[in-house]
Write a structure and sequence with these properties.
The chain has about 210 residues and is an alpha+beta fold. It folds into two domains: about 110 residues, Acyl-CoA dehydrogenase/oxidase, N-terminal domain (Butyryl-Coa Dehydrogenase, subunit A, domain 1, Orthogonal Bundle); about 90 residues, Butyryl-CoA Dehydrogenase, subunit A, domain 2. Helix content is about 35%, strand content about 15%. The chain is built from six helices and five strands, in the order ααααααβββββ. The strands form two sheets. A three-stranded mixed sheet has the order 1-4-5, covered by helices on one side. Strands 2-3 form a two-stranded antiparallel sheet. The termini are far apart. The relative contact order is 0.15.
């Protein structure tokens, strides 16, 4: 038996974005990270600034992004996490929502939200985990029932990164009870819609820049 080991990245790194991340971390994170921890706040203005510079990295060029590699965004996160891992998690979760938006087959829905998610006009939150489910994503209990060409969603989510400042919520719900992961669908909703309510942010020991909400 032979084993081959690769010590380098599997795809190229665009050093332009890595250098930008180093400058951003030095100018916008280093001086304020401790303050965000002490005051237990998510820095909305700084997060929107980071989104405008880095949220398009993994988005295809044909829908307005930079079309760069996973290795590039990983290196961007690495440079930011050296200063503030909570802030980096907030940006990374937002980028997951942005990438998901770029893959939506409904072009009207995609075009309505993707530009805002790349520019920083909208902060995205990813609502998958539930209070009694934890990491078992296939077992979520939030239910989405179709009625009159609309969906009625009932349930609760927990550990919502960016929940404090989010403008768009990527909500995952079970549409066909009993089908486990095969019945799960994603929905894009706004936090000010009737019926949407939020509890206060978690009282955490650290990483308050994540804006984690119950």
């Amino acid at each position: 038996m032979s084993i081959s080991l690769c010590s380098g990245p599997l795809n190229p790194v665009d050093e332009y974005f890595v250098d930008k991340a180093k400058v951003f971390a030095d100018e916008h994170l280093k001086l304020y990270a401790e303050h965000w921890e002490q005051t237990k706040q998510q820095p909305e203005k700084t997060l929107r600034m980071a989104i405008s510079q880095f949220a398009g990295i993994r988005i295809p060029k044909d829908v307005g992004g930079n079309g760069s590699t996973a290795a590039t965004i990983a290196r961007v996160y690495e440079e930011m996490a050296k200063i503030d891992i909570g802030f980096t998690c907030a940006l990374a979760v937002h980028n997951v929502v942005t990438i998901a938006a770029s893959l939506i087959e409904n072009t009207a829905l995609r075009d309505r939200n993707l530009g805002k998610l790349m520019s920083g006009e909208a902060i995205g939150a990813f609502l998958l985990t539930e209070p009694d489910i934890g990491s078992d994503a296939a077992s979520i209990q939030t239910l989405a029932i179709e009625k009159n060409d609309k969906y009625i969603i009932n349930g609760g989510k927990a550990w919502v990164t960016n929940g404090v400042k989010a403008d768009l919520l990527a909500v995952f719900a079970q549409t066909i009870p009993g089908l486990s992961a095969k019945g799960i669908a994603g929905f894009v909703i706004k936090p000010d819609l009737p019926g949407v309510s939020a509890k206060p942010a978690y009282n955490m020991l650290g990483n308050h820049a994540m804006g984690l909400m119950k």
